[in-house]
Design brief:
This protein is mainly alpha-helical and 599 residues long. The chain has 22 helices and 8 strands. Helix 2 crosses helix 14, helix 2 packs antiparallel against helix 18 and helix 12 crosses helix 13.
Length: 599
């Protein structure tokens, strides 16, 4: 049955190549149109089991709470300069808007308004006019869209001046009251010392968590700054009123800016009006904020600033992975072409093989768009994998076809023998490899499951292209050669050059004659590699798979070093406020938790 089908397929290719080519072109156009619908997502959650409660909760939080993701601006330099920079750049970031859709929206609005004017002259068109007006409202909402909801980088000092005492616990309020019993400077410092002893020596819970340690540090830093101002005043230096007020505020309220311990770095958190689910706004928002930061840096020489956080990292992953993937695919295509030219000792057949492979990739992408809908971090590398695996199909067919033609067979006979000898092996090998990948469908991980579907179906697509398209190309090439040679010498068949690798045969014969040494060498190599395999380690830091040199990744390490804070955090979704506060209190006691924010 299989031999009969392969013979029939060879007849179709040799007798009706134009019909077969038409079929291939139609299929390529269909799959090409489908491939344009394929999207790319860079969210790590898309690699997780889709039904896992943690994945469901994470996606729900990201989708419903824009504040769960942020654009973090890390500023470095001298303390006074980075504070000035933060004050200057924060309002500009807050006012950032997306203008990328303005022109297109204006054109669409004008068209809709013209339709509305035409409909107003007709009867019973109110419903249609209402729908068009709704479309206009949607388009207007996309123009000059505000990107940032708020920028957190500085404590609301005025609010704390007026309401700070209302936020202090009763026990701490009584302790604070004792500090200000004596308004004189010496009495204030004396009472302050007693308060600190009571707070940090008498109460073992006062330094029990990282947040309390940081609060103590901020308090001591405020005292040190306040004493520094007093020393300058005692030495007769004229202190500006603003500097005195700032010292008092820092003493009473604490450092208003999100400064690092060495005061050389500062953080601004820009909370967007969109989530990571909105890929287009994620790219646009990051680019707009980056341009604002770069523009403001021109006014502050000596200050450096860059973006990090979930959204900038997602932006960089998407942009750089697509760029590197395109470069990698191009390099793979060129490398394959060069190797084929060297192996076949000709240039036409390798080009045909590469053309067939490209068509197969288009079919694979179109099938992926139908079955999966989008590529994730893992499956976006499908093209490179399929290039390496799919080229084998073409190599087998071209090699055998060339050999049969070199033996003097006609195009029909050479194609039939090629299908019967190599075609069965190519089909069997392609299907078994595809099935091996498709077994990943049973994986609970969505990333692994989609990887299996994309690669398995992609291999089948390339296999079909190899059986339907490559033979057509070979038939056209051989017919052209036959016509060309018939004009020159009258021969109907073109005797191909010898493309066999005779040195491989000689190596095989040598190893066969000395099989004892061959086996001993194989055992030694196996033992050495087995020993090496036992020493392999696992890199648990998933950030090490990111492209090297990304500012967003480098600044994560900067935040960890300067602030002793990781950019990674856990998100907890609760049913009510009390439960949220109870969880927060428990998490603050964990040694691995630095900061807990709740309602």
């Amino acid at each position: 049955m299989r031999d009969k089908f392969l013979r029939k397929l060879a007849d179709w290719h040799s007798d009706y190549p134009w019909r077969m080519l038409t079929i291939v072109i139609v299929l390529t156009l269909i799959f090409g149109a489908l491939s344009s619908q394929l999207s790319v997502t860079m969210r790590w959650s898309d690699l997780l089991p889709s039904g896992d409660p943690r994945t469901v909760q994470f996606n729900k939080i990201i989708d419903e709470f824009a504040s769960s993701t942020s654009i973090t601006v890390v500023v470095q330099g001298e303390e006074s300069r980075i504070k000035e920079f933060a004050d200057a750049v924060a309002p500009r970031i807050l006012a950032a808007t997306d203008t990328s859709k303005n022109e297109r929206s204006r054109i669409e609005i004008n068209k809709l308004q013209e339709k509305i004017l035409a409909l107003r002259d007709e009867q019973d068109k109110e419903a249609e006019i209402s729908n068009l007006e709704s479309e206009i409202d949607v388009l207007r909402s996309q123009m000059n869209r505000k990107l940032i909801n708020r920028v957190d980088y500085k404590t609301e000092v005025d609010f704390l001046r007026n309401h700070g005492l209302m936020l202090i616990k009763e026990k701490d309020l009584k302790n604070t009251k004792d500090v200000f019993l004596d308004p004189n400077l010496t009495g204030l410092l004396f009472n302050l010392n007693n308060s600190m002893e009571k707070e940090y020596i008498g109460d073992s819970e006062s330094m029990s968590t990282r947040e309390k340690e940081d609060q103590a540090y901020v308090f001591l830093d405020g005292i040190q700054n306040f004493i520094g101002v007093l020393q300058k005043s005692v030495r007769g230096k004229n202190m500006p009123r603003e500097e005195v007020h700032a010292a008092v505020d820092k003493f009473l309220i604490g450092e208003p800016y999100l400064l690092s311990y060495d005061k050389k770095a500062l953080i601004l958190n820009a909370i967007p009006n969109f989530t990571m689910m909105d890929t287009e706004l994620m790219v646009t928002g990051t680019d707009v904020v980056q341009s604002i930061v770069d523009d403001e840096l021109q006014n502050f020489p000596g200050v450096t600033a860059g973006l990090t956080g979930m959204i900038p990292i997602g932006h960089d992953e998407m942009i750089y992975s697509q760029q590197s993937l395109g470069e990698t695919t191009l390099i793979a295509l060129v490398a394959i072409l060069i190797l084929l030219i060297i192996s076949f000792r000709m240039w036409v057949a390798p080009i045909l093989a590469l053309a067939n492979l490209i068509v197969g990739i288009v079919w694979a992408i179109g099938a992926t768009a139908v079955l999966v809908g989008q590529l994730n971090i893992m499956t976006q590398m499908m093209s490179v994998i399929l290039l390496g695996l799919g080229i084998d199909f073409s190599i087998h067919l071209i090699s055998n076809f060339t050999e049969w033609r070199a033996a003097g067979n006609s195009i029909r006979t050479a194609l039939e023998k090629t299908f019967l000898k190599s075609g069965k092996g190519v089909i069997t090998g392609g299907l078994t490899t595809a099935c091996a990948f498709l077994t990943m469908i049973i994986s609970s991980s969505r990333g692994m499951k989609e990887m299996g579907i994309v690669t398995g179906v992609g291999l089948i697509a390339i296999l079909l292209a190899t059986m339907l398209f490559l033979p057509v190309l070979l038939v056209f090439r051989e017919r052209r050669l036959d016509r060309k040679l018939a004009k020159k010498g009258g021969r109907e068949a073109h005797i191909q050059r010898d493309i066999s690798f005779r040195f491989l045969g000689r190596i095989g014969e040598f190893l066969g004659r000395h099989y004892g040494y061959t086996l001993i060498a194989a055992v030694i190599v196996t033992i050495m590699l087995t020993w090496a395999a036992t020493n392999i380690t696992f890199d648990q830091n998933y950030m090490n798979i990111e492209p090297e040199g990304l500012t967003s990744i480098t600044l994560q390490d900067t935040v960890l070093k300067k602030f002793d804070l990781s950019m990674d955090y856990a998100l907890i979704l609760t049913d009510n406020v009390d439960q949220s506060r109870n969880y927060a209190e428990e998490y603050r006691k964990m040694g691995s938790v630095a900061i807990t924010e709740d309602i």
